[in-house]
Design a protein that fits this description.
Layout lengths: L1 H17 L4 E2 L2 E5 L6 H7 L7 E2 L1 H13 L3 E9 L2 E8 L2 E8 L6 H10 L10 H17 L6 E9 L3 E9 L5 E8 L6 H6 L20 H16 L7 E9 L5 E9 L5 E9 L5 H5 L12 H17 L6 E9 L4 E9 L5 E8 L6 H5 L12 H14 L2 E7 L9 E10 L3 E10 L3 E10 L8 E8 L3 E10 L8 E12 L9 E14 L4 E15 L6 H10 L2 E14 L10 E11 L7 E15 L2 E14 L42 E11 L9 E13 L12 E12 L2 E10 L11 E5 L4
Parallel strand pairs: 2-5, 6-8, 9-11, 12-14, 15-17
Antiparallel strand pairs: 1-3, 4-5, 7-8, 10-11, 13-14, 16-17, 18-19, 19-20, 20-21, 21-22, 22-23, 23-24, 24-25, 25-26, 26-27, 27-28, 28-29, 29-30, 30-31, 31-32, 32-33
């Protein structure tokens, strides 16, 4: 098309000149320009004033101007000794409008169009526009939209400009109907399909898009198939070809993978070479490939990464570890040699902190385990990030280690944080199935004045409890990292409103203590507590209540020591996916108090990422209490309880365990709880503050004074739930079905709670 236009213009333009004798150009005049300057024409025109022009030069001049892409018509003619260039400009693109593109965003499409030469301000080339349409269709084909249609409309605008509109009808993406394998003898098709992320969607995966076809997803699945075989000893596995066919209606995709499994190999000798830095025995402790086992490419990669991590701990942050396999076809083994090059040991020149508008630099620096002037340790950098994440002050923490320009052995550590709102003023009203009507007011600053300290006042009221609490946590009270805790709390409890045996308690408690870090993950605590308690009984107290009052009266002052050990290796505080948290605590009254007793609890939570979108959360706890000295039993108001939204869902709050003569729960001095839970985020939003759960809970409370601990009495329930860290506090909802309830048990199908109450 373009060549025919050039030929036509050339023939029209040359005819007038060809009838004339060649002449010497005394001047050049350009006509017809509207946007393009005459200087641009002179710059591309291969004729200058003073040149003698011929028919051949006219042809070259026209071709040169056409090749610029600025003009759709060019004519050269003679006016005396003046060469006249008449040019008709191509229109300029004033705007590009996109309609119907839901799968691909405007910014991505416009960037792609600009890369192809179609952008606002550029001249319009209709041939280019046709190619762009084809490229857009190909782009949608790669995303599985085979029924896509792209139509362009060019509308003229004043001043030789145009508007380009692209209407895209994406259509429905083609769904993978079937994946077949040809050549697999050692594994059946179902095993191989499990290695694919793409494929037909089972009926129970309502929000899955696994059946959406795209070339990129297929390429990723083929690589996973290679890993599947090579992790099982098939070193020479190859994919010989892949066929993708589409149904006539462009809605169903059939994929056929032709493969050659090859022979299966076992791991042979594993050798280490190079500058190991460590002793060979130390490095061999992290080798994941055992001689005699099936050869695994993943084990080789895992070993290389483990070597790099070990070297990184000693400052060799940019070490190179190359694994070289040697296949022995006759013996059916693969020998692997790991060549270790530690490169230069790298030191930290400077630590830079950014993004902290409220939090002081020293609050961040005291959590870092990587120091300036020391060699760079990858483990210390990772631990520093974990500690900052666990503070709860930041939405995002990023640590980078760029090289210092011009230096081979120095890096900077750049710590950038994105602060979250760490202070709140909250007042609200709500309802919880366990608490009844809820009234709360709270003023809390978890990073007061950017110091990292926490100052809080909370007032909460529900059917059973009225609580006022003022507390101050002085983090890093000493330079060695010891925290100090001070609090004062008032509680007024009406146990009957909590569906317990009828009694009331008014207490005032003061606490002063310290938290001492022992290791990076371990902390021990010691507190002194003073409690002034007044017990209120109704006119017909139970036997247990009356016996306690007869021995101890209704007013008691107790001095307690609270000791605790906490180990926290979670990757983050909210919705962790890896790690664990353990807490062991012992609270005991000091001899000479009005009441002498102790309470010990142990709680263990563990998290494991089964997949990027699925987390397994397991929790178990034990609690035991008893008396000593002049107190005969653990005071009944210090008993443990189970049942409800925070322990064994599916059973009413505090309902499990022993009961009094009025059939009201009285709790016990021993409690065992356990829970297994699977957590998934909302579809497409792994960073959401919401998790959906499916769970199994179990637990029971025992009175060891009057009964034996019987594991057969443990109650179990299973159900579904949701957890949302809402702006007004954690919202927990569940529906649960008891699995082994018995006559007399109080069950509850739906339960929820909102906020944190003391």
């Amino acid at each position: 098309m373009r060549r025919s236009l050039v030929a036509l213009a050339f023939s029209l333009a040359v005819a007038p000149v060809a009838a004339m004798e060649p002449f010497q150009v005394e001047d050049i005049r350009v006509e017809g320009l509207r946007r393009i300057s005459a200087g641009t024409v002179f710059n591309y025109l291969p004729v200058q004033v003073g040149d003698r022009i011929s028919e051949e030069q006219v042809g070259r001049a026209i071709r040169s101007l056409y090749d610029t892409g600025f003009f759709q018509d060019v004519t050269l003619r003679r006016d005396g000794d003046v060469l006249v260039v008449e040019a008709v400009e191509r229109p300029a693109i004033a705007r590009i409008e996109l309609h119907g593109n839901n799968e691909v965003g405007d910014d991505d499409l416009l960037a792609g169009l600009e890369g192809a030469g179609l952008a606002e301000g550029q001249t319009l080339d209709r041939a280019l526009l046709a190619r762009v349409e084809r490229e857009l269709r190909q782009q949608y084909f790669s995303l599985g939209h085979y029924d896509v249609q792209v139509d362009s409309t060019v509308s003229p605008l004043p001043r030789n400009r145009v508007s380009v509109r692209l209407d895209i009808r994406e259509g429905e993406p083609a769904a993978v109907q079937e994946i077949q394998f040809v050549g697999n003898e050692r594994f059946d098709d179902d095993d191989l399909r499990d290695a694919f992320e793409m494929g037909p969607v089972p009926w129970y995966r309502f929000f899955s898009d696994a059946d959406r076809y795209s070339r990129q997803r297929l390429a990723g699945d083929l690589e996973r198939l290679r890993s599947f075989y090579q992790d099982r000893g098939f070193v020479n596995f190859t994919i010989t070809s892949t066929q993708v066919s589409i149904s006539p209606d462009r809605r169903r995709i059939h994929v056929t993978v032709n493969l050659d499994e090859g022979e299966q190999f076992r791991a042979g000798e594993v050798s280490l070479a190079g500058d190991l830095v460590y002793s060979e025995e130390e490095l061999r402790d992290v080798v994941a490939l055992e001689p005699g086992t099936l050869y695994s490419r993943s084990a080789v990669v895992e070993t290389s990464e483990a070597f790099r991590d070990k070297l990184g701990e000693r400052g060799y942050a940019f070490a190179n570890v190359n694994a070289v396999p040697e296949v022995n076809e006759e013996e059916g083994t693969v020998d692997v040699t790991f060549f270790v090059d530690p490169a230069e040991r790298v030191y930290v020149r400077r630590i830079n902190i950014s993004g902290n508008e409220r939090t002081r630099d020293d609050v961040i620096r005291r959590e870092l385990r990587q120091y300036e002037g020391a060699w760079l340790s990858t483990e210390d950098v990772a631990e520093s990030r974990r500690r900052l994440d666990r503070l709860g002050f930041f939405d995002n923490v990023n640590i980078e280690t760029p090289r210092v320009p011009g230096s081979q052995d120095q890096v900077d550590v750049d710590v950038s944080v994105q602060e979250r709102l760490s202070g709140s003023i909250r007042a609200g009203i709500g309802y919880g199935t366990d608490q009844g009507l809820l009234l709360n007011f709270g003023v809390e600053q978890d990073n007061v004045f950017g110091s990292g300290d926490r100052l809080a006042f909370n007032a909460n009221n529900d059917d059973a409890n009225t609580v006022y609490r003022l507390s101050y946590l002085d983090r890093y009270h000493t330079l060695s990292g010891i925290d100090r805790n001070i609090s004062l709390a008032y509680r007024d409890t009406d146990a009957d409103e909590a569906d317990l045996s009828e009694f009331g308690i008014k207490s005032m408690t003061g606490t002063y203590g310290y938290r001492v870090p022992v290791t990076g993950n371990d902390t021990i605590g010691a507190d002194i507590e003073v409690e002034d308690l007044e017990l209120e009984l109704n006119q017909e107290p139970t036997e247990i209540q009356q016996a306690f009052v007869d021995r101890n009266g209704t007013t008691n002052t107790t001095y307690r020591i609270a000791l605790s050990w906490n180990r926290d290796s979670r990757d983050r505080a909210i919705f962790p996916s890896e790690g664990s948290q353990q807490r062991l605590s012992l609270t005991t009254a000091i001899p000479g108090s009005d009441l002498e007793y102790y309470r010990a609890t142990y709680r263990h939570q563990r998290y494991a990422a089964i997949a990027d979108w699925l987390t397994l959360a397991m929790e178990g706890s034990l609690a035991y209490g008893d008396s000593f000295g002049g107190t005969e039993r653990l005071p009944f108001f210090e008993n443990f309880y189970a049942g409800g939204n925070n322990s064994v869902r599916g059973f009413s709050s505090n309902s499990l365990g022993p009961r009094d003569e009025n059939d009201d729960p009285v709790g016990g001095n021993f409690r065992a709880l356990g829970s297994v839970e699977l957590r998934v985020p909302p579809p497409g939003d792994g960073d959401s503050d919401i998790r959906f759960t499916t769970f199994v809970d179990g637990g029971q409370v025992y009175n060891t004074y009057d009964q034996d601990v019987d594991a057969g009495a443990i109650r179990y329930a299973a159900g579904l739930g949701m957890i949302w860290y809402s702006p007004v506090g954690p919202l927990s909802m569940s529906v649960a079905y008891p699995l082994n309830d018995e006559s007399g048990d109080d069950t509850q199908f739906f339960q929820f709670s909102l906020g944190t109450f003391f």
